Amino acid sequence: MKKFAKILAVVLAIATLTACLCFTLTACNKEVSDYEYMKGKGTLICGITLFEPMDYADEDGEITGFDAEFAQLVAEKLGLEAKFQVIKWNSKELELNSKSIDCIWNGLTVNEERKENMDFSQSYINNTQCVVVKSADLATLNTKAALEGKKAGAEAGSAGESAAKDLTENVTSVSAQMTALTELNAGTIDFAVVDVILAQSNCGKGDYADLAIQPAIELEAEEYAVGFRKGSDIVEKVNAAINELKADGTLLALAEKYGLAGQLIK
Questions:
Q1: Helical H runs in the chain?
Q2: Does the reported pTM lie above 0.90?
Q3: The CATH number of domain 34-125+223-263, selected from 3.40.190.10, 1.10.238.10, 1.10.10.60, 3.90.1150.10
Q4: pLDDT by residue (tens digit) across 156-183?
């Protein structure tokens, strides 16, 4: 009888251990939602390029700008801390899907091709691509026909690169939009195609005093939104936070601070 009791006790112990092990494995293998993943680490890592006035380094080397402050405000509402990671723009989808970053919050243009690879928040800024030339060339590089065969510069993987390829077959892809302006300054390209928001903040000023937007050449309008992993459940929460910031006037005040009130989608 005692021997039977001991055997029964061992069997019960093994059964209990197995049940606990199964429960642990089930819990470990349980699929965690994107938002739960971010909550678990406490951060919203935003992939960016340096792009004034959206994301750029201030005098202390800290990332600031409209998108940077916007991301911080939304992250705070979601109980997260916004952090910023400079990425190569033509690798943005890879960075996103590998979870090196959690979102792309950097003047990201919404288009059908990108919708296949990521989900977007609601759009918040209107933008267009624009042609930038040296001021001395405004009178000659003033039509799309005049740009044919000329050498263009644009950020690799950007909407500007696509627009540039529609204007000329001779396109140099560079690492950032600001690099395109630098190349134009140096005379290694004839024109640059960049976001008009960036061009308005830099052309005719400082190191870019000799550059100007070509007003005679109009390119297609577009919208900015935040890009997330496909199927991410944080998108709905971000949209709710954006609507709150719109409703209480915070987003408009932020847009006014960076001279973007006219482009804000209300």
A1: 2-29, 34-41, 66-77, 92-97, 112-115, 144-147, 159-167, 177-186, 196-202, 234-247, 250-257
A2: no
A3: 3.40.190.10
A4: 999 999 999 999 999 999 999 999 999 9
